[in-house]
């Protein structure tokens, strides 16, 4: 579900100015840990450009409603569609659409979610599309890992990075976008204390503090059930990705992301949370 309120306010101001000044880029790469923020902002841009209301985007006019429901003829979206990757067969239709004129607008919007999942052939097909912006089209790629996007594609887009503070604060829309149901959010309850404990544990692990093992046990005792375990690992992942985006902490973030990926594999083998956290604390100390 698209939520025009759950966006990056700083970046939307930049995009607003680009539209108002007639300087909108023909292609963007939105980089965000939180897929909901990137997706919402992409649809916000399409709504802002096409909105018929006075307070743009109002989300209520006919154009906005069509865009938000995915039924606007000048907006095309590419998603994983329950696959592991985005294939060339999903990109080819976009190139075919370049031969068509907009139906109800003056610009068409192509939104490609989880662009890091493009196969090599699909990425090359997309590259050809970006190299031939002969039609009035704005292509928006969404990704949580800019390093997995071909350099040739990155060089042909305007890269916009999002802060993702909402994910780290436990925003409900962000959690839902990451696979949590409303029932699971209710099960988690108030997350403030848990968030603080996860943060302390993360800091102790990255510092190689011996107390990390003690914190691991306390954290595991507080969390019950699969939902709580999934939440703890998600928080650790985003803390690591936040570190990775900062030059001063990039190495810590890289190491943590490496081991958190291992935790995901171990979790699939039903390893309990305490053992997962113990493993993380011990690996970083090596």
TrEMBL record:
Keywords in alphabetical order: Nucleotidyltransferase, Transferase
GO BP terms: DNA-templated DNA replication
Transferase listed as a keyword: yes
InterPro entries documented for this protein: DNA_Rep/Repair_Clamp_Loader (IPR050238), P-loop_NTPase (IPR027417)
Entry's EC annotation: 2.7.7.7
UniProt-listed Pfam families: DNA_pol3_delta2
GO molecular function term, any single one: DNA-directed DNA polymerase activity
Official protein name in the record: DNA polymerase III, delta subunit
Organism this protein belongs to: Lactobacillus gigeriorum DSM 23908 = CRBIP 24.85
């Amino acid at each position: 579900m698209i939520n025009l309120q759950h966006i990056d306010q700083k970046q939307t101001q930049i995009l607003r100015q680009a539209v108002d000044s007639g300087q909108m880029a023909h292609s963007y790469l939105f980089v965000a840990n939180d897929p909901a923020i990137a997706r919402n902002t992409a649809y916000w841009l399409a709504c802002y450009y096409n909105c018929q209301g006075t307070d743009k985007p109002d989300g209520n006019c006919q154009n906005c409603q069509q865009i938000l429901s995915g039924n606007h003829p000048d907006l095309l979206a590419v998603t994983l569609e329950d696959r592991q990757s985005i294939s060339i067969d999903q990109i080819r239709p976009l190139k075919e659409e370049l031969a068509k004129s907009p139906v109800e607008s003056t610009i068409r919007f192509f939104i490609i979610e989880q662009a890091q999942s493009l196969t090599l052939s699909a990425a090359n097909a997309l590259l050809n599309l970006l190299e031939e912006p002969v039609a009035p089209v704005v292509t928006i790629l969404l990704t949580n890992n800019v390093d997995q996007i071909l350099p040739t594609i990155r060089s042909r887009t305007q890269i916009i990075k999002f802060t993702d503070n909402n994910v780290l604060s436990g925003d409900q829309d962000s959690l839902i976008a990451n696979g949590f149901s409303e029932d699971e959010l209710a099960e988690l309850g108030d997350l403030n204390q848990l968030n603080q404990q996860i943060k302390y544990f993360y800091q102790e692990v990255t510092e190689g503090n011996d107390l990390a093992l003690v914190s691991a046990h306390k954290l595991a005792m507080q969390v019950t059930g699969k939902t709580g375990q999934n939440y703890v690992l998600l928080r650790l992942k985003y803390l690591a990705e936040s570190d990775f985006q900062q030059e001063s902490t990039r190495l810590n973030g890289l190491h943590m992301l490496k081991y958190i990926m291992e935790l995901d594999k171990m979790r699939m083998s039903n390893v309990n949370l305490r053992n997962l956290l113990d493993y993380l604390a011990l690996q970083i100390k090596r």
